[in-house]
Design goal:
Structural class: alpha+beta
Helix content: 40-55%
Largest sheet: 8 strands, mixed
Shape: globular
Oligomer: single chain
Distance between the termini: 46 Å
Radius of gyration: 29 Å
Number of domains: 5
Length: about 700
């Protein structure tokens, strides 16, 4: 019989997480803050009365049920408290009166390819004839690369103009929801500030802890560069040792993702564990007396949290630091902790600090991987008994990789629609190399101020990182290293999570009958996937994607599709990955469609293009070219269902209707905003129906599943 009393934080975490999920995912059933307080007070009173009245062990479940409801409502209320829009001082509530804001640089400014990016925390609002008013809310700010922007530092106060622009929602089917991503971080707007748009108030209001963290990290980064690290080696070393990935090249990042080793570049449990083991070994001389052991544990706690501070206090390192802290405290009070309970405790504390952590992909992957390793590594390792020590060590590392990969499969399929094939091979090499990088890197940081010695250790770090990058590059180049397009919908994701939970419980509780339930869950998911793929064979439709610099019209029939696009689009991998591949994955379509140019003629059994006319699925689409002007209405106007205007075409709707009998004018997203507004205003004037692709993709005649 399982002793559930050993896992108090697990029992607390489950209803707490359920309450957080209900608030975020069921917006139509939200309570007002006052209602939440009343219900929570009633539940707390009921729990207290139950604990006093019911003394029977068999009826303890009543107290547990009431407390579960109370914890669920607590999680619900925590999100309510943290929600930016719920604050009375939320800046959008007063924006009509605002002239400018006083904002504090909330995050460390980072250099991006085209701008300087940071987060601003709005503190005060000023109007034309109004006194200053305190406001709250965070916005994402972008600055051009100039001397004044580079001079910005964390904590600086600046004045920025109002209003603050809303973050654009997803414009294409299955596109990443950047607005929701920022909202979960409390960021409710974005602004691009030219040098003349903002004023440096020559005041700094930084949190001293974070200010120290950033200054110390900058000094350590500079010491890494002085020690001879540069280019890709510096970028990887900075990411592994300090969690600073701004200098990480896109190609290197891509290689690590394809090799299944991206977790190595994120400061997490492995890094904190190595530091803990190394420091514990070095402080081993403090194990003789009781007060020495207490001092040792205190030093270990201080070191762990100091490292977490300079690594940016990310959710992954917070989780690892909290877990190891529980282990250290357990040793101090001579009590053994249960690992799963420690994991749940760290998650509970992090969610209390910020309940939106629950919806962070990194948070979910981090916890899933750790739980998978804790629960599945030993059973997988026991599959084979290997007497050779070297082979046994190889199998032990492989078992760790397998257990982590099994636990994270639902998340990688749902969020990234892909699977890394050679993760086991990558981790086989990367685990020992990364161990060397972390240890040698820590030594380098400690001796970075000592001439010659820092260069010597720097060569060791450079060599280890070079080997790591070389191995990752070789694994990424193996055919089939990453399988893309593995789409699963919300229902299939939920079913897969249930199957994973049943698998974990089967090994934790040692109840073999759960295996049948797990297989039933997997069968249900496979049926859903099969039905969805079969249904995709009957899909028909045309999608005009919303892209700022390109035009893309996708014609879909069954599992085939043709893309009408400019030749530069397919070379723009970031745009294709971000805006198109999500829809293609959902519709079970190839990531490499045949591309038709705007000047090409083409014909197959379901689409025909001649000059500027395209016939597809009973729909006629015309492409407008301002070289063809119709000053007077023709005796016969060509009837077309849609006329697409793209790029910098001269706005002349009257000329369009003189030559075509148009049912709807489509203004493409590649049309500059000022020209798009002219096309739309002219369409309104003459009563021509229109659709602005800049507001979102358009799906026509679709039976997409």
């Amino acid at each position: 019989m399982t002793d559930y009393a050993k896992y108090p934080f697990v029992r607390m975490l489950i209803p707490f997480v359920l309450g957080i999920w209900c608030y975020v995912c069921l917006p139509s059933f939200r309570f007002s803050p006052s209602t939440t307080i009343i219900i929570a007070s009633m539940l707390f009173a009921m729990a207290s009365m139950t604990a006093l009245v019911i003394k029977s062990y068999q009826k303890n479940w009543v107290f547990g049920a009431v407390m579960g409801c109370y914890l669920a409502l607590t999680g619900y209320a925590m999100v309510q408290v943290h929600e930016a829009k719920a604050q009375k001082s939320y800046f959008r509530n007063f924006e009509t009166d605002a002239y400018y804001y006083v904002a504090r640089v909330y995050d460390y400014p980072t250099e991006r390819p085209n701008a300087i990016r940071t987060v601003l925390d709005l503190e005060y609002q000023f109007g034309d004839s109004l006194p200053s008013r305190p406001v709250s809310g965070k916005v994402m700010a972008y600055f051009p690369k100039s001397d004044s922007a580079f001079a910005l530092s964390y904590g600086d106060l600046i004045a920025v103009p109002a209003p603050i622009r809303e973050v654009t929602p997803p414009l294409n089917p299955e596109e990443f929801d950047y607005r929701a991503y920022l909202a979960r971080k409390g960021i409710m707007g974005q602004v691009y500030l030219k040098d003349e748009d903002w004023i440096d108030l020559q005041t700094n209001n930084a949190n001293p802890i974070y200010a120290f963290s950033y200054r110390f990290r900058d000094a350590l980064l500079a010491s890494l560069q002085r020690s001879g690290l540069s280019d890709n080696e510096f970028g990887v070393a900075a990411a592994i040792l300090l969690g600073y990935d701004d200098n990480l090249a896109d190609e290197v990042r891509k290689n690590y993702v394809a090799a299944g080793s991206m977790h190595i570049l994120c400061v997490s449990g492995m890094h904190v564990g190595i530091i803990y083991l190394l420091a514990s070994f070095l402080l081993g001389f403090l194990n003789r007396k009781k007060w020495q052991k207490t001092l040792k544990h205190g030093l270990l706690l201080a070191l762990i949290w100091f490292y977490a501070l300079i690594a940016g206090l990310s959710p992954s390192i917070l989780r690892a630091s909290l877990m190891i802290s529980f282990v250290i405290i357990g040793e101090m009070i001579h009590r053994k902790g249960f690992v799963i309970n420690s994991i749940a405790a760290s998650a509970f504390i992090l969610l209390c600090i910020n309940p939106n952590n629950l919806f962070e992909i990194g948070f979910q992957l981090s916890y899933a991987a750790v739980i998978g390793i804790v629960v599945l590594q030993r059973p997988i390792y026991s599959w084979f008994v290997i007497k050779n020590k070297l082979l046994d060590k190889i199998w032990s590392i492989t078992a760790v990789a397998l257990s982590a990969q099994i636990a994270t499969i639902p998340f990688t399929l749902f969020y990234f629609n892909q699977f890394t094939t050679y993760f086991w091979l990558s981790n086989l090499f990367m685990t020992p190399i990364s161990f060397i990088v972390v240890i040698s890197g820590m030594v380098l940081l400690m001796v970075s101020w000592i001439p010659y010695l820092n260069t010597l250790v720097g060569y060791l770090v450079w060599g280890a990182v070079y080997v790591m990058n070389w191995v990752v590059g070789k694994i990424e180049s193996i055919p089939g290293s990453i399988i893309k397009g593995l789409y699963i919908n919300d229902f299939e994701f939920a079913v897969l999570l249930v199957a994973l939970l049943l698998l974990l419980l089967m090994f934790m509780l040692r109840k073999q009958r759960l295996f049948i339930a797990m297989l039933a869950s997997l069968l249900l998911m496979m049926v859903s996937v099969t039905v969805r793929i079969y249904s995709s064979e009957n899909q028909r439709g045309m999608t005009v994607f919303s892209l700022r610099k390109h035009t893309a019209v996708d014609f879909v029939r069954g599992g085939e599709h043709l893309l009408l696009a400019d030749t530069a689009l397919m070379a723009d991998e970031s745009t294709v990955d971000y805006s198109l591949k999500g829809a293609w994955s959902k519709r079970n379509l190839s990531f490499h469609p045949q591309v038709i140019g705007f000047d090409d003629d083409y014909a197959n059994d379901y689409l025909s293009k001649k000059s500027n006319l395209i016939s597809f699925n009973g729909t006629l689409l015309a492409l407008w070219d301002d070289a063809y002007q119709f000053s007077d209405s023709l005796n016969y106007r060509l009837p077309v269902d849609f006329l697409l205007v793209r790029e910098k075409q001269k706005p002349d709707v009257q000329s369009v209707v003189n030559g075509y009998d148009v049912k709807m004018l489509i203004v493409d997203g590649s049309v500059p905003r000022y020209l798009a507004e002219k096309w739309i205003n002219q369409s309104k004037t003459i009563g021509l129906p229109y659709y602005n692709i800049g507001d979102g993709a358009m799906e026509v005649g679709c039976t997409f599943k």
